[in-house]
Specification:
The chain is α/β, with parallel strands linked by helices. The chain has 20 helices and 16 strands. Helices cover about 45% and strands about 15% of the residues. Strands 1-8-7-3-4-5-6-2 form an eight-stranded mixed beta sheet. Bound molecules: phosphoenolpyruvate (PEP) and magnesium ion. Magnesium ion (MG) binds next to helix 17. Phosphoenolpyruvate binds next to strand 10 and helix 17.
Length: about 550
């Protein structure tokens, strides 16, 4: 038996033969051409056909992966009309007098590589979308097929990586699970797999070698372990786990729609973290009682220029409307550090995590900040919004940020624009400094939400992006737990609520401790809500 460890991105157990995805190779040889105009026309015809295919696919996929997920194919279609994508292709055809297949492959690969090189995980994951679109166009140009090469028996399908098109079009009856050498937890492939209930594990690297093809395997999508030629005791263990998971899921479903209470009747709020309008659907599907962290910076990523006030207003309004009277905590821009955006033109820094990020950028660029605050306030007329400032370190910073909010309100009021005056303004506690002076900050904040991802990084002095330090990173370190406790106590002394929106909030092994500390809210991945509700009921 060989045991391989990857990153589980879609839970579930699968057993079957391992089969590597056989993509039919596409013709991308560098063929010289005589007539440039004619070649550009050939590219444009393929581009239009690809756009039609994507429209159809978006329609067909709605049932399978949900309307919001299927929208990805509309984004792919838009990419085909984006000059950032098409201009370099036309440029290669024109200047090198080469065939369109080669130009699409070359320009598409370069653009995909640009995305793959970005620091931000979300942007990195977009490289596969560009690759996917390019493959579609090349396929049309060359008239070749790229079938999924599925064999008769259902298999655990392996590949370097899967494109969103491939994942969405998988035959659910032929594929037991997905495993890949590369991939990102927030890629659409991972999202689609979760939506379709296909177990998936990514990031095996070269260990997932082609030699393993055809071997019997078993997979645990939760722990991320792939067993090749599993021993009978492992099979038995996994079968038992599968049955346990099935029963657990059935039992958890009974908690859907119910409020969250501890054993002795204290209510707790179970909210969800989201990064986009479409994530609000997942939050509702997971039975979130609200949104505890809307990472608004995702509206700024993946574009060439700042989103304007109207763009932002639309996104916030849609989330608020979807969530009805449930609270939606919108965190103001947290760009910088691991989330870099070119058009912000931030200077190069030796230590970006300790540099110009989050509220520091907003306080240095008041117009940028006010645009976002006006958009949030305008949207506040459509639901139950709250504002949250990230990375606050001092009372002065909080007061300055609140002053920007006041000015934004004043500007809207002077124009007679509708908004809610009393939107609660809270802060994230993400640094040891803010936790230690949380008694002072609590005087000016309507609530606290502890960002344990950053609090851990800054308390333990461990770069959260650096995987090689994981053995030093004790996420349950006493220092972090004490800072959480202190923050919660100070919040309660001042009569405000205190929650956790960092990854620790979803750590089931700490739930009891958090309940005992008196935390009022946990904001987590939507898929964790029902289980947390059931654990809290026993605490
Ligand atoms: C955190 O730091 O815990 C947090 C929730 O914010 P982010 O992960 O977006 O930095
Ligand atoms: Mg943070």
């Amino acid at each position: 038996m060989i045991t391989l460890q990857g990153k589980g991105v879609s839970a579930g157990i699968a057993r079957g033969r391992l089969s590597f995805l056989k993509r039919k190779s596409l013709s991308v040889e560098k063929r010289p051409i005589d007539n440039v105009e004619q070649e550009i026309e050939r590219f444009n015809v393929a581009r239009k056909t690809a756009a039609e295919q994507l429209d159809t696919l978006a329609g067909e996929m709605t049932d399978k992966i949900g309307k919001e997920n299927a929208l990805l194919f509309e984004i792919h279609r838009m990419m085909l009309e984006d000059t950032d994508y098409t201009d370099p292709i036309i440029e290669i055809i024109t200047s090198e007098k080469v065939c369109a297949e080669y130009a699409v492959n070359t320009a598409g690969s370069r653009l995909a590589q640009d995305f793959a090189d970005m620091d931000d995980e979300y942007m990195k994951a977009r490289a596969i979308d560009i690759y996917d679109v390019s493959r579609r166009v090349i396929k049309l140009l060359s008239g070749e097929d790229y079938g999924l090469g599925e064999s008769g028996e259902p298999v655990i399908l392996a590949a370097d990586d899967f494109t969103p098109s491939e994942t969405a079009q998988l035959n659910r009856n032929a594929v037991l699970a997905l495993v890949s050498r590369q991939g990102a937890a927030n890629s659409h492939t991972a999202i689609f797999a979760r939506t379709m209930g296909i177990p998936a594990v990514i990031s095996f690297g070269a260990f997932l070698s082609g030699d393993l093809s055809g071997k019997q395997a078993a997979l645990d999508g939760e722990t991320g372990v792939l067993y090749i030629e599993p021993e009978p005791d492992i099979i038995k263990e996994l079968e038992e786990k599968q049955e346990r998971l099935r029963k657990e899921k059935e039992a958890l479903e009974k908690r859907r729609g119910k409020p969250t209470f501890t054993k002795d009747g204290r209510p707790l709020k179970l909210y969800a973290n989201i990064g986009s309008v479409s994530d609000a659907d997942a939050a509702l599907a997971g039975d979130a009682e609200g949104i505890g962290l809307f990472r608004s910076e995702f509206l700024y990523l993946g574009r060439n220029d700042y989103p304007d006030e109207d763009d932002q207003y639309e996104s916030y309004r849609k989330v608020l409307e979807k969530m009805g009277n449930r609270q939606v905590v919108i965190r103001t821009l947290d760009i910088g550090a691991d989330k870099q955006v070119d058009y912000f033109k931030l200077p190069h820094e030796e230590n970006p995590a300790l540099g110009m990020r989050a509220i520091r950028i907003c306080l240095t660029r008041p117009d940028l900040f006010k645009t976002q605050l006006r958009a949030i306030y305008r949207a506040s007329a459509h639901g139950n919004a709250a504002i949250m400032f990230p990375m606050i370190n001092s009372l002065e910073e909080l007061l300055k940020a609140k002053e920007s909010a006041r000015v934004a309100r004043e500007e809207l009021a002077s124009k007679g624009v509708a908004f809610k005056e009393d939107v609660p303004i809270g802060i994230m506690i993400e640094t040891p400094a803010s936790a230690l002076i949380s008694d002072v900050l609590a005087r000016e904040a309507a609530f606290f939400s502890i960002g344990t991802n950053d609090l851990t990084q800054y308390t333990l002095a461990i770069d959260r992006q650096n995987d090689s330090l994981s053995s030093f990173c004790d996420t349950h370190h006493e220092a972090i737990l004490r800072l959480i406790q202190l923050t919660c106590e100070n919040a309660h002394r001042a009569g405000i609520w205190c929650g956790i929106c960092g990854g620790l909030g979803g750590d089931y092994s700490l739930t009891k401790e958090f309940v005992e500390m008196g935390l009022d809210e946990l904001s987590v991945e939507p898929s964790r809500i029902l289980k947390l509700r059931s654990i809290i009921a026993e605490c």
